[in-house]
């Protein structure tokens, strides 16, 4: 027993010396659970795939102030009684070296209603708290900026920047591709 007690710190030190780092990985919600969180249990959810033209990509990137990594963008459209109740996008990106997956939910008019962390693979101290995401709500696309009303989080600078970029991109895609089609 005494040997095992002293072996743990030595084993941890050996792992770190040889370049093996502890793995941090948390998956909070599956896709189905996320859709229920976004739209409720009784909503019908349809996937809408969008293929922006080069001109639309340029406009989305200008509005979002972030590059589009793909020429395909998917929204999940929540409906109740054939009425659209909102749009959700699942965004995955690397924070430092490991991925984070967010669900960004918009109301039918394209206003930011909710941002939820679905999975976070960086160390937990780098994850922004829910109250940080709540400050993003009720802001226009132009207001979603650290130079405006959005406060950063010490120790989670890269995470908050990546999350803010995802929210801006989702709102910009809605503004360029969904809103004109609705009018």
UniProtKB/TrEMBL annotation:
InterPro entries cross-referenced by the UniProt entry: FMN-bd, Ion_transpt_RnfG/RsxG
Domain of life: Bacteria
Pfam family, one: FMN_bind
GO cellular component term of the entry, any: plasma membrane
Boundaries of every FMN-binding domain copy: 101-170
Gene Ontology biological process: electron transport chain
Keywords of this entry: Electron transport, Flavoprotein, FMN, Phosphoprotein, Transport
One of the record's GO molecular function terms: electron transfer activity
PANTHER family: ION-TRANSLOCATING OXIDOREDUCTASE COMPLEX SUBUNIT G (PTHR36118)
Protein name, entry field: FMN-binding protein
Native species: Methylomonas lenta
């Amino acid at each position: 027993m005494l040997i095992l007690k002293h072996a743990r710190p030595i084993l941890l030190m050996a792992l770190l010396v040889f370049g093996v780092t502890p793995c941090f990985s948390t998956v909070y919600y599956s896709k189905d659970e996320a859709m229920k969180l976004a739209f409720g249990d009784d909503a019908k959810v349809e996937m809408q795939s969008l293929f922006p033209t080069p001109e639309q990509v340029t406009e989305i990137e200008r509005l979002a102030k972030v590059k589009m990594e793909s020429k395909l963008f998917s929204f999940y459209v929540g409906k109740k009684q054939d009425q659209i109740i909102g749009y959700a996008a699942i965004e995955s990106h690397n924070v430092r070296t490991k991925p984070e997956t967010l669900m960004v939910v918009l109301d039918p008019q394209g206003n930011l209603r909710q941002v939820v962390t679905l999975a976070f693979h960086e160390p937990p101290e780098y994850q922004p708290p829910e109250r940080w995401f709540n400050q993003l709500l009720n802001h226009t696309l132009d207001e979603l900026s650290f130079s405006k009303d959005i406060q950063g989080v010490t120790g989670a600078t890269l995470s908050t920047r990546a999350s803010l970029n995802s929210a801006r991109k989702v709102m910009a895609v809605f503004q360029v591709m969904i809103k004109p089609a609705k009018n």
